[in-house]
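Lecture notes, continued. The same structure-token format from the folding unit now serves as the input rather than the output. Read the line below as a description of shape only.
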């Protein structure tokens, strides 16, 4: 039997950004359908750690809390970042601390599946949200007064607005005929978690090395999560290592600062690219999160930018005149314009750092180290950088 259902908004993709979108828009009384291709996220029975770890900014932590999805997580598994230490290639060091910024934390390290589970638990409790999961989208068409989404089980959904939150290879974006500008960084991000000889003491550490950018993010107690953005040959070498060899290699690359490392989650790798959708909106369409933009993970800001999209879309729709349809193009353009600077600034910063620290040109090393030493000595500049990263 085929079903026909009508909503204000259909969100396609129930990752962190899509789930946050559904919750943020439902709290203004909008009727939402959320369509997710994978089975509903669940937590493992054992105490194992997720290799997908995010650094969430304090501003986004407050946003997630306002959605009821922060404290639903197992908070003993969340680590506050109290300080950040960054090293250049000639030992130039830059340090930021929560104490200097007079804040409790510079950010929070969370596991992807814990946060995902918290968002879904919250969505289940909201009557304005209907979940279609797992569901396979087969066609998406736009009419003057609505958009229609057909699912493979014969269900037909219609809504005033479609939100594409279906990741970097967005199906919604393709159906809408929106192209992307892509630049491959020629790198993979290798991620793995380790038990450490000494506790990381809530300090995030990052090294700009000749072979890429290595980040150690603190997890509670004696654990840490690594992201090593590096060229594909080196990434493959890391992935092929035995757990003992990988632990020794990562420990040595970070100057053995946390003592010996033993692998607690298998290493995995993700391709890294810079990507922008040609437009973020069309009549009855808005893109959010990775569907709209991808950035280099060296600043740990991908999902944070996505949550900023959600906040921008929520503000735009909530501030509209009630007679205005949520799929109105002029309204959606306001959302797009509100996001331009933030996305552009983050892409310029991450791509600039990637280029500066990846360069072998004469003078590049000196410039890098002068820049870091200068920044470290300027309290005003550090405060501004920290204030920006904490939104
Ligand atoms: C190595 C690495 C490290 C990173 N570290 C950080 C970090 O520390 N901090 C940070 O902020 N960001 C980080 N990022 C970026 C971050 O992972 C992404 O920005 C974030 O996951 C984007 O979330 P999203 O919900 O937009 O997309 P996704 O997480 O890709 O979710 C998309 C969802 O849509 C679903 N979907 C896809 N197609 C369909 C379809 N046709 N129909 C229905 N559902 C569909 C998928 O199943 C999925 O659930 C990192 C990225 C990499 C590669």
């Amino acid at each position: 039997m085929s079903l026909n259902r009508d909503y204000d908004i259909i969100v396609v993709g129930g990752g962190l950004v899509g789930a946050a979108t559904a919750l943020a828009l439902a709290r203004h009384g909008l009727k939402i359908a959320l369509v997710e291709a994978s089975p509903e996220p669940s937590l493992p029975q054992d105490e194992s750690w997720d290799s997908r770890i995010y650094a969430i900014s304090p501003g986004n932590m407050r946003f997630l809390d306002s959605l009821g999805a922060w404290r639903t997580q197992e908070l003993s598994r969340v680590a506050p970042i109290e300080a950040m230490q960054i090293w250049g290639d000639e030992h130039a060091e830059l340090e930021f601390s929560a104490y200097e910024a007079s804040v409790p934390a510079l950010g929070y390290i969370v596991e992807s599946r814990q946060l995902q589970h918290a968002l879904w638990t919250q969505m289940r409790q909201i009557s304005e949200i209907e979940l279609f999961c797992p569901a396979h989208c087969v066609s998406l068409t736009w009419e003057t007064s609505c958009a229609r989404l057909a699912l493979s089980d014969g269900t037909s959904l219609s809504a005033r607005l479609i939100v594409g939150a279906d990741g970097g290879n967005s199906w919604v974006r393709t159906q809408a005929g929106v192209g992307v500008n892509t630049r491959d960084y020629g790198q993979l991000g290798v991620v793995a978690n380790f038990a450490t000889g000494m506790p990381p003491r809530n300090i995030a550490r990052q090294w700009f090395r000749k072979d890429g950018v290595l980040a150690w993010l603190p997890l509670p107690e004696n654990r840490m999560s690594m992201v090593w953005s590096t060229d594909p040959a080196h990434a493959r070498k890391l992935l092929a290592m035995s757990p003992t060899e990988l632990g020794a290699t990562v420990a040595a690359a970070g100057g053995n600062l946390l003592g010996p490392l033993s692998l607690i989650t298998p290493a995995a790798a993700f391709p890294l690219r810079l990507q922008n959708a040609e437009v973020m909106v069309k009549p009855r369409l808005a893109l959010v999160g990775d569907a709209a933009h991808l950035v280099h993970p060296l600043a740990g800001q991908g999902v944070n930018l996505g949550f900023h999209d959600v906040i921008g879309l929520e503000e735009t729709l909530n501030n509209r005149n009630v007679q205005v349809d949520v799929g109105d193009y002029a309204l959606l353009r306001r959302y797009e314009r509100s996001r331009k600077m933030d996305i552009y600034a983050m892409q310029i910063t991450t791509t600039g750092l990637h280029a500066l620290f990846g360069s072998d040109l004469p003078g590049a090393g000196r410039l890098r180290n002068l820049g870091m030493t200068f920044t470290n000595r300027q309290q005003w500049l550090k405060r501004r950088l920290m204030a920006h990263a904490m939104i």
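Point for the exam: The chain has one domain: 4-389.
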